[in-house]
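Weekly puzzle thread! Below is a chain. First person to post its structure in token form gets bragging rights.
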Amino acid sequence: MEDKDYNFKEYEFDFGNPFKKFLSYALCCFFYLSIIFYLFFGIFALLAYIDDSVRNSLFVKVLFYVLIAMITAFAIFLTVLNFRPKKVVLTNYAIDIQRNSLPSLYHINRGFNDYIMYSDIEYYDFDEQAPSYRFYHLMDLPFIYYNYYSVVKIKDKKGRLYHIPVKNVVDFICDLDEKTEQFEASKTSKNNC
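Winning reply:
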């Protein structure tokens, strides 16, 4: 989809089929709920070890309810975040990868989404004959199941790898070529002035 005012293009993530998409979202929800469960369990276990006189103090009660409220808000946030559309947006200046999820432990510093400036891209490629991306623990995706044959690999100048399974991968590569060329042309024209 292209917006004429902002000149961006959106591409949905490619899960392969609706069952894989459902399974990916369900496993992600299960993972988030298990985190929440262990946080609640930890608070209640800690509360069980506290002496009765300390447990009944006003400070501990307020702290307990604040922690419960924070964990509940975190659970709601993660649930809503999980069901937001996962897509890639090509803007005039960058690639916006909207994973809308917690990053994997291997890429914990990336946050919920990725943003790659065209000037930071070292290379990108797509090889439909090589589904070598099955080892999801090396990837920065929020899900396990996806279409292995539609993964675009992007490497930035800092050495970070991004693996993005997108629908209409050939169109995505063509649009990415066009956007990077336009960006380079605009950068060159600004330097010539």
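Puzzle host: Confirmed. Bonus trivia for everyone else. Residues 18-49 form the longest helix (32 residues).
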